[in-house]
Write a structure and sequence with these properties.
This protein is of the alpha/beta class. The chain folds into two domains: about 160 residues, Rossmann fold (3-Layer(aba) Sandwich), CATH 3.40.50.300; about 80 residues, P-loop containing nucleotide triphosphate hydrolases (Rossmann fold, 3-Layer(aba) Sandwich). The protein has seven helices and nine strands. β8 and β9 form a beta hairpin. About 15% of the residues have low confidence. The structure holds guanosine-5'-triphosphate and magnesium ion. The site of guanosine-5'-triphosphate has 22 residues, from α1.
Amino acid sequence: MSNIVAIVGCPNVGKSTFFNRLTQSRDAIVHETAGVTRDRHYGKSDWNGKEFSVIDTGGYVNNSDDIFENEIQKQVHFAIEEADAIIFMVDANLGVTAGDEVITDILRRADKPVFLTVNKTDNPSLMIEAQAFYSLGLGDIYTISSASGSGTGDLLDAVVATFTSDKVDDEAGIPKIAIVGRPNVGKSSFINALTGTERNIVTPIAGTTRDPINTRYQKFGHDFILVDTAGLRKKSKVSEISSSTRCSVRYAQLRRPMYVSLCSTPHRVLNRRI
Ligand SMILES: Nc1nc2c(ncn2[C@@H]2O[C@H](COP(=O)(O)OP(=O)(O)OP(=O)(O)O)[C@@H](O)[C@H]2O)c(=O)[nH]1
Ligand SMILES: [Mg+2]
C-alpha cells in the first residue's frame, strides 16, 4: 500500500476529531477524556485528486505504569513504521509539553516527512501562541482547528505533495473477515495468532478494544482484511464514558454492512484459551 498518513500525538490533542474530518465519518470515538483511542484506526480520504489512507493512533504517555498507555506507545511505533507521512498533532492551548518533546525525539529518528500540526488554534491569539512550537525544531508548523476545519487545506496540500502516486490500492473485491463476539472471549488474540503480530492490543481486561480495527493482510498466499471489533458489553457495565455514546457508536459500527451483513459465511468459534 502507499499514501499512508499516520496521526500521532499526546492524548486528547484532537487526533480522532481530525481523523473523522478527513474520513468524513464518525468512526473514531472523540471525547474530552484523555486516552480514549487505544488501538489504531484506519480510514480513507482524498485531497485534490490524491487518495490516501489515514491511521488514527492512541495517545502517547511517557513513563506510565498504565497498561494501556504502554500498549498505546507500541501502536504509535507501528504507525510510524507503516506511514509514508506523519501528522504530529499538538494542542495550541497547552503549549509545548514534555510529551511533545518525547515524541519529537522519536520522530526525528523516523526518517519520514513530519508535519507538526498545532490543533485547536480556534482564534487569532492562539495562532500567535502556536509559534512557540517552532522551538521543537521540526520545521514549518501548520495551525489548524479540527473542530471548524480552518487551516486543514494548507496542511493537506503539503501532505499530499509528498505522495508519488494518486491512488491507494483498491480494497474492493478483497474478502473482509469480521471477528465479533462478547468482551474478552479472545477476538484480538485470535487475530494476533492468525497474523503472527502484536498489532491489536491484547490484555486480559474486558473491553480493551474500543474502536473496530480494519487491517489488510497478506498471508497464506491470500490478500484479506481482518476487522477486529469492540466487544459488546451491557450498558450498565460501561462506566468511563457516557454509556449512551459508547454503546450507540459500537452498535452502529457492528451494524455496518461492511462488517457483518456482507459476510457470506458466518462461523461460530468456541475459544478456550489461545
Ligand atoms: N476547541 C477545540 N477542541 C477540539 C478541537 N479538536 C478536538 N477538540 C476536542 O478535544 C477533545 C479531544 O479530542 P479527540 O479527537 O478525542 O482527541 P484524541 O487526540 O483523539 O484523544 P485520545 O484518543 O484520547 O488520545 C474533544 O473534546 C474534542 O472535541 C479543536 O479544533 N478545537
Ligand atoms: Mg483518539
